[in-house]
Amino acid sequence: MLIFISYFVCWFIGTAIAAVPGKSHLELGVLPPTCERIECPIYDRIASGKDYEIRRYSSAVWMSTSPINGTSFVDATRTGFLRLFGYISGNNSYHKKIEMTAPVMTEVKPSNGPFCNSSFVVSFSVRKANQQDPPPAESMHLQRWGKTYVAVRRFGGFVSDMNVGKEAEALSASLNGTEWLDAIKKSHAGENTTLYAVVQYNSPFEFLGRVNEIWLMFFDQKDQSLTAA
After folding, report:
1. pLDDT of 76-90, one tens digit each?
2. Short-list 120, 214, 211, CA closest to 170
3. Of 8, 7, 117, whose CA–CA distance to 73 is shortest?
4. Residue 139 burial (CB < 10 Å; 0-12/13-18/19+)?
5. CB 158: neighbour CB atoms within 10 A?
6. How far apart (Å, rounded) are the C-alpha atoms in residues 154 and 171?
7. Considering the domain 2-228, what is its CATH architecture?
8. Domain boundary assignment for the chain
9. CA–CA gap between residue 210 and residue 207 (Å, rounded)
């Protein structure tokens, strides 16, 4: 329980801290140190290029909040984290405490205009031990990923409302002219704006060695995509 409280305090207070400068790009191809301490989803690295890599997640499971509408990524992530922290602390139908995992993923569906709300869904990875029967909870839903591909850009420092869009654009730019960008466009055909995810591996009180990622999810037309249980 002390671990839960410590992590909670770090996230709740730390997300209010202004962004601290960090490397705009970090080395890909190695697991973040956080994943040596707590459980992270397993993936296969199937390709890489300048400033990006392509992963395949075959069986990731996420517990996710209902959509949070707003203009601030930081505020929405804090709100979603508090809901998920309550969930793993026992505020679920089984009244069961669940170990923390990494990363915290915030899916972002951008607005169509500068003064419109975006939609944010915040998720924790579900531990393997809990994946068969994760406790349900009000205003939460389960995402079971089939074979899902992810284009990834990694960056350091703190994530802020100022740098989220910049890092997402940098990932798109690095994919220009590749087969992967074509696959992403096909997967998101018909959408007004492209959904992407911001993934954070560290407590906000870890000032050095921070690891964050931008994800663009896509799928092979023959494969199952993201599904809600």
Report:
1. 999 999 999 999 999
2. 214
3. 117
4. exposed
5. 21
6. 9
7. Alpha-Beta Barrel (3.20)
8. 2-228
9. 7
